Amino acid sequence: MVMQLESAGVVPGGNEKLDIDEIDTWKTAFARARLEACTLLLPEWRGTLELPSHQSILRGFHATPCADFQKGYCALHRVRGKTSLCFCFHFDSQRRRAPIDEAGRLRYWDVACHSLTTGTPCVDGEDCVFAHSRDEISYHPAKYKTRRCNGKGCRGQEICCFAHGEELRGWAPELYSYWLLVYGGRRGVTGAGDDLRTQPIGARRKVRFCASYPDVSQCRRGAACEFAHAREECATELLTAEQEQQVPEALTEDFFMYKYKTLWCPIGVQHDWQTCVYAHNYQDARRHVSIGYGPQPCPHWAKKDPSLPYHERCPKGLRCPYAHGAKEQLYHPRYFRTVVCRDVRSKACPRAHLCAFFHRRAERRRLASDDDTDYSRPLAEEAWDALEPPH
Question: Rounded mean pLDDT of 162-167?
């Protein structure tokens, strides 16, 4: 960070060596300036675009304590072994700050506060412009019902944070997402560039294919559809059509090591995510190998709970130098097809052509050197946005 400030001419005496106190001073100043910019860029709430039922959930879900539970009993508490179905919160850990202030602006972004990832108190408290709980992220206007529900652990359509049927809010990230408006989007801290809040829905970026694709003549929305009807309309990086269709000639070693499961799936129709070459969740996805992580498995990576956000799966998050999950390890260039497949010895391999192990001796890869990854140091800050979910 300090190196970036020096290169921008912000730190006086850019060629001079700063002492620790000066570095801390500039780090603090930079952090304060960034926080102020993040606060100024909090977008306005556009309630007229929302369904009434969505407005109620977005504004009030888990924002007030449950009066019945405080009296000793709430009929919606852990109904049938599921997570509480109550609109109000039962414990402080479930509490969610209302995301919209009295002036009609968002109060915080859809990104976890450092206190949430470290378990330490937030110095900004209620005024913090970053999320303090999982619900503050899941039910944030930028996230709420922007992905379809897969049915696992669903609380029911009324309060589920994922979309059921045609209630998908695919346009919402363009209006409210930190990653688009502040961190990596088209709008900078000066406010220059396109203002996504005033764009008509039809003009917004399309990052997923319509469910009718490629037979788009079946789409009822036609030209007004919020989803891509052609590859040229999809404003996100795609694999080639041959790679998507898993044409044998396209499934090279380089494809598996550097492309497979590194891009979020843009396919709109329901399909088998386990055999899809795109990523579908954080257990399935791989960071780009180019950011520098090694093939050794992370000792902290949470494998069992698929609902956990990325920052809760490992304390170092995206900057961890270890492999996060089986796919990051197995398809890493220093591991891919260096070990024989056990399944193919006794029966047909269920992974077939997608298997990370070699089936024939001719497929075996031999490495010229040992793993030289420095696992003692976190990856560079550029790794932070390497695995952002689709919007």
Answer: 82
